[in-house]
Amino acid sequence: MIYLDHLLKATQGTLGQRSKHTHFQAFNHDTRQLAPDELFVAVRGERGNGHDHLLDAVRKGASGLLVEGLAFQQLSEQTRSALSQEEITIIVVEDTRLALQHYASAILQIWHPTVIAVTGSVGKTSTKEAIANVLSCQFNTFRSWQNYNDTLGIPLSLGRLEARHEYAVIELGCDHPGEIAALCRMLQPQIGVLTNISPVQLQYFSSLEHLAFELSTLLTSLPAGGHFFYNQDDPTIQALLAQYVRDTPSPITCHPFLENIPEGLSAQQLVTAVTWQGVQGSIVRPEAREHATDVEAPEKEGQQYIQLSSQLLGRHHFDTMLAAYQIGLSRGIFPTHVEQALTDLKPLVGRLNPLPGVRQSMLLDDSHNATPASTAAGLQTLSTLAPAGSQRIAILGDMLHLGDYEEEAHRSIGRQVAEHVDYLITRGEWAALIAEEAQLAGMPVERIIMTSTHEDAAQAARRLLSALPTSTTSSSTDLENLNAVILIKGSEETRMERVTELLMARPWEASELLVRQTPGWKKTFFMHAERPTWVEIDLNAIGSNTRHIASLVGPQTSVLVALKADAYGHGALKVARTVLQNGASMLGVATVSEAIPLREAHINAPILVFGYVPRWQMREALRLGVSVTIYSKEEAQALSRAAIALDKVVKVHVKVDTGMGRLGIRYEEREKILELVRTARHLPGLELEGIYTHFAQADAEDQAHVQMQLSRFQEILQALDAEELRPPIVHAANSAATLMLPEARFDMVRPGIAIYGLEPSPSVHLPEGFRPALSFKTQVSQVKWIPAGEGISYGSTYITEKPTCIAVLPVGYADGFRRGPQNWQSVLIHGQEAPILGRVCMDQCMVDVTHIPQTRMGDEVVLIGRQGEMTLSAETVAERLGSFNYEVVSGILARVPRVD
Q1: Boundaries of each Alanine racemase C-terminal domain copy (predicted)?
Q2: Which residues sit opposite 118 in a β-bridge?
Q3: Percentage of the chain with pLDDT > 90?
Q4: Which of 129, 251, 331, 751 is least enclosed by beta carbons within 10 angstroms?
Q5: Edge to edge, what strands does the sheet with 227-230 contain?
Q6: Is 864 helix (H, G, I), strand (E, B) or coil?
């Protein structure tokens, strides 16, 4: 509960508007999950400004607004007028973030609960919850909300603190140096808890030593007479503690999670059982610890043992239980009450939470987050809990924020996967290193599947499960008859809970059983671009478009997807993985060099090189195992010599020019074609795999030329049939022909542009269900007024006729955002077109936003894609540029990061 007088005094705020509302249920900074009678806090974030959503907050039932003075003054007259007519309290402060922090400090001093601060690399939330559960059996206890653990989240959470609370158990996170100290200054904890120290957030701490120093700030921030509880099995903590004792007079009492452990044993070695019912362990009663010598013999006279148990899964959770147990005893709670409170502990949402899965599987949903330590613990738990005869499947996403340790961390997990898992499915580019290392560690390649989307990862798991026998009498909750146990884990940004939802036996329960299910999270997009101009790739659209093509041509015709020019600017590696999971069986590239990154990423599917392979590159083609296009006898002989030298076989496709006037043997030279086919069939080291042609006008409204080419190609095929020389794969159809000419599909089709959801031409439209995969975006970097009569950009080719508000955008022709002879003409901001003014620069351009007054620095700008009700398609851009959509998307340069 938040009282207005407390808030005004703590923040030194002023009332911008009075109303009957003088207290509020809680703080909320996200209108997408705001509840009635809450106080909406307008926070300026990295990608948004809460002051843009004040009216939305009022409509959602907020009874108060906490705003910043300058931003409030800059609101439009329309917004200020609308707010003045509402029964709502408005508190004005200089900085809402600082105001929240001041309130947090003040309310803790007013109601003075004993503050227990919990930090560490992993296990913070579980430990916080366990401690709060134990204390709640005797005291009114506040716990910070979910994992709100930073300088914004903790004050927001403390809006729920009440005068009745005797203890406040608060989780402390950190992702940059100095954050723990800042949090401790705000909270003034009397008790500190350090769970462990392992690699997390190393992109900002650079080393484990620097991270350890940061976490140890909790110890040095405690007041004289404070208490510090720590994991005695963590060597880094032990070293920090030894240094602290050596360098500092000891005003603080330090407590290990478990004292007097028999020599040579760790706390986790005291675990007696890890089952689906939870973790159990034997420890000596506190009053009998001085007699303890052997935990393996509980019947030994003079020893008194107790059994700690919880419903938490995983051996590592015994440390969680011990921390809560020790703190409970230190607060004077009877051991039996502590033990009962621990027994009631259940897995938290997204943290090794067992959920019934499809086809008699059990999901270990560990999708909340991922670090090397927590992933290793998850793998060990998977291995322990999987019943004999069931398959152990791990679906792992990227582990992020590990700095220079990122590669080694993923490779380390890969080695552990090979030890604990029967099948591995990865989702993401860093996770692909897990797959690579697992294979090097001896895991069979056929048991490893690499994907780039949640849907493909889930579908891969479903295919594995469908191959397993199922019992007609057992259910997914029959733990002894499980077909498989599936661990699902990845860093927060990878959103692996989406995979869990797709595999749940009762997916309608997802909103209550999975993490990140609020409306706000559902709309959250994690952008990992290295700069504020980026391309978003919808890999699900690419997967769906591929399935549409496969369905259209039927099971008798295979699908080769063209990945030329980095998959038409969409990112060849991720596109390759996606299409291969959704119906494609072969890939096509223009050059041998385009095949190299695919093979290096362990994509082993057949690849056809469409273009010229010079003789000096033939051995590289053989090394990569790609199929090569040939169109001369001399070329075939050179390939054969290279194959003999390397003792390999290369597959070849003969290219026939039926009217394109490009690469291939001319149709008129029929005897040369037949001779090349005969030669390819008999030369050592060559395997004739296919023959093909390419249409010049398949996307034209007039189909006469394509029909002519098709007729010529069929004549060649008839001649080959007459001599029984026809290769196994005949192909001719690009995207347009695949859609418009069923008779041209033959054994295989070669769609390109249609896979990316773009129309082959103005005359050939995509069927219903296809959708574009690429959006091109940037952000507003500055907004300012330019007087009348002033020039804009190089050459001052545009002169303002009146005062003009412009937005500067950090995108230019070096990104593929064309300068001339024609430019984009306009972009989308706030769902409206903003015209480009003057010349496009190498890295920037300027647009007119006079008619869009709400435009601010940081606003999203759409260059290709949809915003609100408006769409700026690649086809529209192409028309403005006097080009076509192929060139528009392929012309977005490599320095523009691709995100999905």
Answers
A1: 773-900
A2: 171, 193
A3: 87
A4: 251
A5: 141-143, 167-171, 114-119, 191-194, 227-230, 253-256
A6: strand
Residues 6+ apart with CB under 8 A from 519: 32, 33
Q: Is 564 a catalytic residue?
A: yes
Q: Is the pLDDT of residue 856 over 90?
A: no
What φ, ψ does residue 690 adopt, rounded to 5°? -160, 170
The HSE-up count of residue 56 (CA atoms within 13 Å, CB side) is 14
d(CA 417, CA 394): 8
Residue among 300, 346, 784, 794 flagged as catalytic: 794
383-417 exposure pattern, b = at least 16 Cβ within 10 A, e = fewer: bbbbeeebbbbbbbbbbbbbbebbeebbbbbbebb
Which helix (H) or strand (E) segment holds residue 431: the answer is helix 431-440
Domains of the chain (ranges plus CATH)? 2-99 (3.40.1390.10), 104-256 (3.40.1190.10), 267-289+302-343 (no CATH), 353-468+475-513 (3.90.190.20), 537-756 (3.20.20.10), 774-872 (2.40.37.10)
Catalytic position from the list 9, 60, 564, 633: 564
CA distances from 32 to 26, 88, 179, 521, 867 (A): 15, 19, 28, 9, 18
Which tokens is 310 given?
């919880």
Say which residue the tokens 């979910």 belong to: 146
235-247 helix and 208-221 helix, angle to the nearest 10 degrees: 50
DSSP class of 678: H
Sign of CA dihedral 330, 334, 337, 342: positive
Q: Annotated catalytic, 60?
A: no
Q: Are 630 and 638 in contact (CB under 8 A)?
A: no
842 in a labelled binding site: yes
Bridge-based pairing of strands 227-230 and 191-194 is parallel
Burial of residue 749 (CB within 10 Å: 0-12, 13-18, 19+) is: buried
Mode of pairing for the β-strands spanning 860-867 and 774-779: antiparallel
CA-CA-CA-CA torsion for 299, 304, 307, 308, nearest 10 degrees? -150
Structural tokens at position 295: 């935990």
What is the rounded distance in angstroms from the CA atom of residue 452 to the CA atom of residue 773? 14
Q: Confirm if 563 and 588 have CB atoms less than 8 A apart.
A: yes
* 187 contacts 170 by C-beta, under 8 angstroms: yes
Q: What confidence category does residue 579 fall into, taking pLDDT thresholds of 50, 70 and 90?
A: very high
| DSSP state string for 508-545 | GGHHHHSSS-SHHHHH------SSSEEEEE-HHHHHHH
Q: Kindly give the pairing relationship between strand 782-786 and strand 804-809.
A: antiparallel
533-537 and 774-779 as β-strands: parallel, antiparallel, unpaired?
antiparallel
H-helix or E-strand containing 189? none
Chain-centroid distance, C-alpha 134: 35
Any known ligand binding at 662? yes
Assess contact for 308 and 283: CB atoms under 8 A.
yes
How far, in Å, CA of 436 to CA of 457, rounded? 17
The SS3 assignment for 490 reads coil
> Where on the phi/psi map is residue 520: left (φ > 0), alpha (ψ -120 to 50), or beta?
alpha
pLDDT tens digits for range 708-766: 999 999 999 999 999 999 999 999 999 999 999 999 999 999 999 999 999 999 999 99
Cα–Cα nearest to 373, from 237, 192, 234 = 234
Whether pLDDT at 33 is above 80:
yes
Rounded distance, CA 241 to CA 460, Å? 47
pLDDT for the residue numbered 764: 95
